[in-house]
Amino acid sequence: MAGVLKLEIAETVEELKTLLAKQTTARGRERIQALYLLKIGQVKTLKELGILLGRDTATIYRWFQKYKADGLQGMLAVKKGQGRKPAIPKPVMERLKERLQEPDSFNSYSEVRTWLKKEFGIEASYKVVHEAVRYKLKLKLKSSKKKRNKKNK
Fold first, then answer.
1. N or C: which end of the chain has fewer CB within 10 A?
2. Cα–Cα distances in Å, from 34 out to 54, 65, 89?
3. Which residues, in sequence order, are bridge partners of residue 45?
């Protein structure tokens, strides 16, 4: 019969049923359900499975190709995005931390910005520098302001 899906599913019906119950994400549940429905014989073609799950046949085909290549774990794996690169790279952050621990270090975040520009060619905003020093490195700049002494009456 044309369009019949030929996929060898290594897991048993019982294993798929328990995996289906253990899934915490809709994404994983949907993919295990596709394998389960195919394994129990409720659907025979990608088109039937697509209609039942509300997914395009190309999407389901892609899931099954991943299953064939990498197995169940590969099909359920979630890709992690690269994310944005930090404005101040790790080696520069380490050098900044060393420099901030020196006795005559910076008095202001503007001085840190100037140093980053001069030494590493990094143009970081005031906000980025402040967050890096204060929250990532958990350091405070040496304040040049003199504290007022309260006069005793």
1. C
2. 11, 13, 43
3. 4
